[in-house]
Please model this.
Amino acid sequence: MVEQAGQAAAEGGKEIVLTGVNIGDFGKTTGETFFDLVKALDGTLYLACNPVGENWGARSPISLLISKDGGAHWEHLTHLVTMPGEYSYPAVLWQDGCLLITHTWQRKSIQFWKIRL
Model:
């Protein structure tokens, strides 16, 4: 699957949509990782997280990080939220040249970000 994604990118593909991929089993027979698949188009990874450095620590800020070396090193891009509070469970998707990011907001609702890159 990773090879097919690379071939699609080489032929000018800008987006690959996956359905029915069991990420828990992905690569068990091929040695591929799910990270290999999601970075296949250009090698860049994006991560939204609470960079607090402790287990069960603060839930603020929510930050956006980037890796251009397959996740070996991460660079801080920006904070999405810095005010005190509880901001958890971030998720990142890529669509049409944009990062789509969601996270909980104060355990009351979901906050959505659309960042064009």
Q: What stands out?
A: The chain has a mean pLDDT of 78. The CA atoms of residues 1 and 19 lie 12 Å apart.
